[in-house]
Please model this.
Amino acid sequence: MQSDLRLTNVGRRYGIRGPWVLRHIDLTLAPGTLTRVEGANGTGKSTLLRVLAGIDTPTEGTLTGRPRTTYVPERFPARLPFTAHGYLTHLGTIHGLPRTTAARAADEWLERLGAAAYARTPMAQLSKGSSQKVAVAQALLPAPELLVLDEAWTGLDTAARAELERVVAELTASGASVVFVDHDPARLAGAPDATYTVTEGGLNRRTAQAGSPEPSGPHLLVEAQGPPGAEPPAEALRWTTSRAETTAPGGHRLTVPRTHSDVVLRALLTASPPWHVASVDPGAPARNHTTAPAPLTTDEGPR
Model:
């Protein structure tokens, strides 16, 4: 079973006697959680993520618990002596996968991220955006228990950005932890279990504020029916932008980003007892608030 990753009084400095980048960091990452890290440029966000990923060693303090961790850096070294597929297959074997399994996983992730067309292209010939898809794929190959994303969406096209959001939802639903930094305040808005700001080398938890950015992209309107008086499953609500009770006992109308809809529907259908999904409307607006109860309608009118 995956354990928490705990940072206790962690600090990191430049060089042996250089200035401190991070000081007195206490942070716990539990399985199944999504954590956002914010802060101005140069405050130490990337250093914190490198410590979480196990790439940088703390100068002081302790880390306990080490889930299987992968990392997507802000800058990926694209000029490598491999094709995209060869590189991913090679990394898969380093992670302990049999070569045939690693090659199959490489194909699957390149296809999912829209990069299958240049699977056999040398890495040195890939564009920045294409290289970034390979960077994301290499972090997803070994089924991480902790995924660390440092501006991982930068350079991706619209479809790949949406796919990465979908992967984040799937990973957290399966019990993995995800930590991310992104310059877009609407990225996964409303979904993180916690948001932290790095300021002057310290880490402060930020509380949710009114008027926070809304999730971008297309949304779905899901009408679901559960036991009278029951709340929708927590995993479904986590990825819901807004919800409203309907006049039907146990009826709820959920507005869900399309990238997270599979996770929401799975949570509803696998709940105990399972919820009945009455309809899925692809034309829902994005709204980041809870609305008042509204009537559930059919072709015959309100009911």
